[in-house]
Amino acid sequence: MSSADPVFTEKTTAAEVAEAFAEQVKGKTVLITGTSVKGLGFATARALAKNAGLVIITGRNPTKLKESKDALKAEFPQANIRPLALDLASRASVRKAAAEVNAYAEPLHILINNAIAPMGPFTLDEDNLEVQFSLDHVNPFLFTKLLTPKLLASSTPAFTPRVLFISSMGHAMIPGLDWDHLVHPDAAKHDPVGAYCQSKLANVLAAKELTRRSKGRIQSFSLHPGTIATGEDPTTVASLMEKGIYTAEGKPNLEVAKWKTRDEGGATIVAAAIDPRIEGKGGAYLVDSVIAGDDQVSPFALEPANAKKLWDLTEELLGEKFTFE
């Protein structure tokens, strides 16, 4: 693959994208949330570890976090891998983790919000929000807010910091956000896959509004990594079986989607993080490692007023403003 103008397809792997833009990631600090060894975040970390200056991996389970670090170091002994305890279901944990990162001597160049809540029964978190919306949108929004000064400080004439929100094609499978349900969650209205789609739509809107409000000083992207079977959470598998996305045997249903491997899914994440050709196009949504056409984006997400409304609502839920100083 030529690094001059590589061509990516749905079969491109994360390692191929990282290799094509090895110069772009050299010396960079990348933070990836949700990096258990069977997940997309790990595939992303693995692709970037070879050339990045520092890869910060996160998790709420210390044993799994160590397992991820050990696996990365075994493959790339020279890689600089730093584990960070982070439970995105807890705002206190988010604040503690952000404070730790802000105290690092190294700059922070790229933040990849990848962690995801299980798709399961109606559950409220400690802040009385539906847990998928909270863990997939509200608390990553808070984490990003707390790290924004450090991200902005990494900016140079040749480099603009990037923030990614890992979304899904599912964001376009609903008509829009149910504003009232987000603020006042109702068990009677809960559908696990529908809640997932709501949070993924929020991710697309957040990337657009973060780019706009920062006046492009942060380039933020959302993306669909592909339909990928990580298969490690039983509640998610059960919810997907109910919708026919998984078969009755709990296996990916090959008739409803084109499935990707984790390494193929990680390709679009790596492209959004380091491809220099999308510089200045913050707010865009990527599919198969390239910017997608508007026909692949929810009409609701294309309306700027919705992005502004979600941002304002999220600030209200958190009780604090997001500033760019």
Helix-strand layout with pairing:
Elements: H1 14-20, H2 22-25, E1 29-32, H3 40-49, E2 54-59, H4 62-75, E3 81-85, H5 91-102, E4 110-113, H6 131-153, E5 162-166, H7 179-183, H8 192-213, E6 219-224, E7 227-228, H9 234-242, E8 259-260, H10 262-274, E9 285-287, E10 290-291, H11 304-318
Parallel strand pairs: 1-2, 1-4, 2-3, 4-5, 5-6, 6-9, 7-8
Antiparallel strand pairs: 9-10
Helix pairs in contact: 1-3, 1-10, 3-10, 5-6, 6-8, 8-11
Report on the architecture of this protein.
α1 runs parallel beside α3, α5 packs parallel to α6 (131-153) and α8 packs across α11. The chain has an 8-stranded mixed β-sheet with strand order 3-2-1-4-5-6-9-10, sandwiched between helices. It is an alpha/beta fold and 325 residues long. 41% of the residues lie in helices and 12% in strands. The longest helix has 23 residues, at 131-153. β2, α4 and β3 form a beta-alpha-beta unit. GO terms for molecular function: oxidoreductase activity. It comes from Mycena chlorophos (Agaric fungus).
Give a short synopsis of this structure.
By secondary structure, the protein is α/β, with parallel strands linked by helices. Helices cover 41% and strands 12% of the residues. Helix 1 (14-20) runs parallel beside helix 10, helix 5 (91-102) runs parallel beside helix 6 (131-153) and helix 8 crosses helix 11 (304-318).
CATH topology: Rossmann fold
Tell me the structural class: alpha/beta
Globally, the shape reads globular
When the domains are counted, the total is 1
Give the strand tally: 10
| CATH homologous superfamily identity | NAD(P)-binding Rossmann-like Domain
Strand content: 5-15%
Oligomeric category: single chain
CATH class label: Alpha Beta
Number of helices: 11
Poorly predicted runs of 5 or more residues = none
Order of helices and strands: HHEHEHEHEHEHHEEHEHEEH
Output the strand order for the largest sheet: 3-2-1-4-5-6-9-10
Largest pleated sheet = 8 strands, mixed
- Radius of gyration, Cα only, in angstroms? 18 Å
Average pLDDT number: 91
Organism: Mycena chlorophos
GO molecular function: oxidoreductase activity
Pfam families: adh_short (PF00106)
Family: Belongs to the short-chain dehydrogenases/reductases (SDR) family.
